Amino acid sequence: MDKVYKFVYVMIIFFSQIIIATNAQKIRRCFNDAHCPPDMCTPGVIPKCKFTICKC
User: Fold this and answer.
1) Domain coordinates of the chain in residue numbers?
2) TM segments (predicted)?
3) For residues 36 and 18, what is the distance between their CA atoms, to the nearest angstrom?
4) What pLDDT score was predicted for residue 22?
5) pLDDT computed for residue 16 by the predictor
6) How many other CB atoms are found less than 10 A from the CB of residue 53?
7) Most Cβ neighbours (<10 Å): which of 31, 35, 37, 43?
8) Would you give the distance in Å from CA 17 to the centre of its chain?
9) From CA 5, how far away is CA 36, in angstroms rounded?
10) How far apart (Å, rounded) are the C-alpha atoms in residues 25 and 40?
């Protein structure tokens, strides 16, 4: 039973690191609106630079 808990705990840590690593690529740093790539948002939404992070 203890091995099952340890396995589940390790899997939670492993998958959380994968999720964090894949979402980290979505954060774009910027200084003005021109630094934000136009294809990062859905069509019709213009990306804006807010607090040095590109947001849709």
Assistant:
1) 2-55
2) 6-24
3) 25
4) 66
5) 83
6) 12
7) 35
8) 11
9) 44
10) 11
Q: Three-class SS string for 16-41?
A: HHHHHHHHHCCCCECCCHHHCCCCCC
Residue type for 31, please? Answer: F
Q: Look-up: residue for tokens 């609106």?
A: 33
Please name the residue that has the structure tokens 């994968």.
Answer: 18
The CA distance from 5 to 44, in Å, is 47
Contact (CB, 8 A) for 1 and 9: no
pLDDT tens digits for range 2-51: 888 899 999 999 888 877 766 655 677 899 999 888 888 888 899 999 99
